[in-house]
Structure prediction request, 290 residues.
Amino acid sequence: MSHKIAVLSNIHLLPETEAQIKALFGHDIHFPDEQIQPSEAELVARTGTADLVLTHPTTVITEQYLQACPSVMYIGICGTTMANVDERVTASGVTVTNVEHYGDESGAEFILMQLVYLARGMGKYQWRDMPTELMGKSLGIIGLGSVGQAIAELALAYKMKVHYYSQTRKPHWEQRGADKTVLLQASDIVVVSTPTNTVAMDEHSFSLLRPHVILVQASAGTSFEMPAFLNWIKQKGNYALFDLAAGKTNFEALKDVPGVVFPHVMGGYTREARQRMGDGVVENLKEFLK
Prediction:
């Protein structure tokens, strides 16, 4: 059976990975490079008669899209989260794949880099009245998946006091497990590393934080109640760190808020991470084509 593939949005593959995909299918493939998300009408137009499509995790795939593109039998997410794919799409029998763990370490490196910059006053803000060390500071992680564990490993290398809260226990880290209330009350730095669009910080959670805390969002999408966050960040000495994995909507809403550090970059998108992600995308395609 001859297959046709279409790329729906900017999937940030390296040129050599794009060449591999073109070689797999033997036809010209357009790889969009715009930074804005395409409309559903544009997604339909780009799909045409293709039966396989590749897309970015932030691109929303709805049941209406699938109805307009009945030829589609495979959707390859070039990233981890599948939160933007409607459940009814997967229930319809379409194969949906993703790539996990390609950016765990690179994302953790970026977060520790941001923390060092803020602690030493090397950027727009300085955490305390004098440059300070991360060593000895208490770091609490909410959600200890693969990214959370990568952050924890680096924090331990900095000789920080690391504890975590998760609804899923982690035997290897059990001695560092903590009640969420205790974790929030005791931490100098709180890292939220929960699944995409899982709200982990509400008004009560923010009320438990001690003064002069750094909040780090290491999750995709939105991890907190916005009104509660905006009230908390107004308090002098509080800071928050993000990257573009939180989404363009959050970026536009928060980039100019005092106390917020929100660079317009994806912290986990190093060359090496993009290579690992691309390798996973190609492997997923090959498995499906079998």
DSSP finds eleven helices and ten strands in the chain. The radius of gyration is 21 Å. The longest helix spans residues 271-289.
